[in-house]
């Protein structure tokens, strides 16, 4: 199986370090991994891929780059993304947001401890995982109602009391044409991968997207 990791955009989300971490995970699972730091790779060279992992917060994407990505996933390539590297990328590209299934809009209180509840324990992505706590940015997102939600978090924000009690998806799966899409909003700093449940969500999500698309 072949994976492409595309890293770039805002440096505050450590794209290079995350790309290296994900490449290591995938190589341990037997993948051949290519890492690119230009979106031009989306225009050509996507044939034969099992998985694309975008690690590209904000930035912009051209129409030809976007069309290459959308068509590749619709044609059966898996997509797995995390935090702002996928959920806050290419803010003017609404088709990209539709494919991912959600878009970051806020993280009230900044970096904080918050609880994550596993709501689907039958998925191969979450099977065996228990609820956990993570220190990260708790992403408030606009989310597609067609997503299959795997995990959620509940907001208790001191800086936005009107959002008290809001239950927000943290991880989900969806389809885009023949391609399988996985997203998890955790992943502000690479150290979060030291939390076993976070590492498992990210690894299992990538594997699921690649294998479901290949099925």
From TrEMBL:
Coiled coil region boundaries: none
InterPro entries named in the record: Class_I_gatase-like (IPR029062), ThuA-like (IPR029010)
Pfam families in the record: ThuA (PF06283)
The organism's place on the tree of life at top rank: Bacteria
Domain spans labelled ThuA-like: 2-209
Name by which UniProt lists this protein: ThuA domain-containing protein
